[in-house]
Design brief:
The chain has 459 residues and is an alpha/beta fold. The chain has 13 helices and 18 strands. It has helices spanning 74-83, 103-113, 135-141, 163-176, 187-199, 205-210, 214-231, 243-254, 265-269, 272-278, 291-302, 339-350, 355-369; strands at residues 3-13, 18-26, 29-34, 41-46, 51-54, 56-61, 86-91, 120-123, 125-126, 146-149, 180-183, 235-237, 259-263, 308-309, 386-396, 415-425, 428-432, 435-436. The strands form 3 sheets. Strands 1, 2, 3, 4, 5, 15, 16, 17 and 18 form a 9-stranded mixed beta sheet that branches. Strand 6 (56-61), helix 1 and strand 7 (86-91) form a beta-alpha-beta unit. The protein is globular, with a radius of gyration of 21 Å. It starts with a strand and ends in a 23-residue tail after the last strand. It binds zinc ion.
Length: 459
């Protein structure tokens, strides 16, 4: 056989455009892309009526394994990713226990993932007070970069950074050629507003929302940019919620700072009123925003100023999601399975986002930003990581479709577009019709170091 597999007759979403083509796979890579490919293949896959998108890359999940696998776990989390068309995730250093703060904790996480993960995976290391000296050993192990919290993480074993730690950590990360990621909210402001509210007995959903205003995000983004500019450290701001926050990042980029940002489906699809209606299942930090803030965020996404979309999937057991005091409810939205379906419906179908732009936002741009060579693009030579999707299919999300541990989603009843017929990882089928399938083939993906300037964003 010349080819291991051929997907025939589908519409292939390449970086340049959508083409009707056959796609041949050999040795886990895309070997040929042409209108008609002759010759026999080990596996013939019918792609007629379907689009081939690059397998979703989710660079921001919390699978909490080892140590807190009862919150999610690598087996269930990666199964949800594969079911939703995903082929690669990058797991955050918290809330695994131990958190990924040195070589030993990295090794523990790798041991937990091998033979368990349905998709390929990368790991973020943590940057916390006291571990700046550990960043080189984490880099040697293969972390994609370092995550820091500028406000409380919600968990005792992962402390937020003071400015000195962040500045010193950025100096080390810059030398290592790896990015620092920040959760950007001003801790002094949010902590004061929260304690005032709780002391006054104002502990409802709207009180929580009011304790984390947009200005807290803007101030922290500005400070992180100043430190990144000074240290020449690649900076990535996770889960930006506002068009104003994206604008700060875009302005800094325009003057040469190596900075990007992501947002999440929940900030694009749900707003403040949904937060009140849904309560615990939609609690997150930063919180959901008013509709006008959301509209400006959408404009920033469509304009190409947001590098990519990540789920920030961060579940917890139901027992942690129930409290009369909303400040005490565990914050974190489950969404790693639904990113592609939500973006295809909200972005592509409703807001006319071209499919190549959507593919960049859900796969290619994260791979390029974080040095994941050969990932996230459907072109000859790339890893054969593919979501085979029927775009004519659109239906409300029901709970029995969910594959994460707790089957919690704020998107129940929300329309998802694009039934994922197959998820293909390095040429092997790992997801089929909404289920993970086959053995757990996931492998660790290590980045190439960032010794280049800021990447061009899709416009
Ligand atoms: Zn997160």
């Amino acid at each position: 056989m010349r080819w291991d597999a051929i997907v025939r007759g589908g519409s292939v979403v390449t970086p340049e455009g959508v083409v009707r083509a056959d796609l041949a796979i050999a040795d886990g890579r895309i070997a040929e892309l042409a209108p008609e490919i002759a010759g026999a293949a080990g596996e013939e896959i019918d792609g007629v009526g379907c689009h081939l998108l690059p397998g979703l890359i989710d660079p921001h999940v919390h699978f909490n394994d080892p140590g807190r696998a009862d919150w999610e776990g690598l087996a269930t989390g990666s199964a949800a990713i594969a079911a939703g068309g995903g082929t690669l995730f990058i797991d955050m250093p918290l809330n695994a226990s131990p958190p990924t703060l040195d070589a030993a904790s990295f090794d523990a996480k790798l041991a937990a993932a091998r033979g368990v993960s349905r998709t390929d995976f990368g790991f973020w290391g943590g940057l916390v007070p006291g571990n700046v000296g550990r960043l080189p050993e984490l880099a040697d192990r293969g972390v994609v970069g370092f995550k820091a919290f500028m406000s409380g993480s919600g968990i005792d074993d992962f402390q937020s950074v003071d400015d000195a730690t962040l500045w010193r950590g950025m100096q080390v990360a810059a030398d290592l050629g790896l990015p620092v990621l920040v959760h950007a909210e001003n801790d002094v402001l949010t902590a004061a507003l929260a304690s005032e509210a709780v002391a006054a007995g104002r502990t409802g959903v709207r009180d929580y929302l009011a304790s984390r205003p947009v200005v807290a995000e803007l101030e922290a983004i500005g400070r992180a940019i100043a430190l990144a500019a000074d240290t020449r450290c690649p900076l990535h701001v996770v889960h930006v919620t506002s068009g104003a926050g994206v604008a700060l990042v875009a302005e800094a980029r325009a003057r040469g700072v190596d900075v990007t940002c992501e947002t999440c489906p929940h900030y694009l699809v749900l707003d403040e009123d949904d937060a009140v209606r849904l309560a615990a299942v939609a609690k997150c930090a930063p919180p959901l925003r008013p509709a006008a803030v959301q509209q400006a965020l959408w404009e920033a996404v469509l304009a190409g100023d947001v590098a990519f979309i990540a789920s920030d999937h961060s579940p917890a057991p139901a027992s942690m999601k129930g409290s009369a005091n909303f400040f005490e409810v565990w914050g974190g939205i489950s969404g790693c399975q639904t990113t592609l379906g939500l973006m295809l419906e909200e972005g592509h179908a409703r807001r006319r986002m071209p499919l190549p732009q959507l593919a960049a936002l859900t796969a290619g741009a994260a791979a390029r930003r974080f040095g994941l060579a050969g990932r996230g693009r459907l072109e000859v030579g790339s890893s054969a990581d593919i979501a085979l999707v029927d775009l004519d299919h659109a239906a409300p999300l029901s709970v029995d479709e969910l594959r994460d541990r707790h089957r919690l989603s704020p998107y129940l009843g929300h329309t998802l577009r694009g039934r994922v017929r197959r998820t293909i990882l390095r040429g092997r089928t790992v997801g089929r019709d909404g289920q993970a399938t086959g053995p757990a083939l996931g492998e660790l993906v290590r980045p190439e170091r960032l010794d280049r300037g800021p990447p061009e964003l899709i416009r």
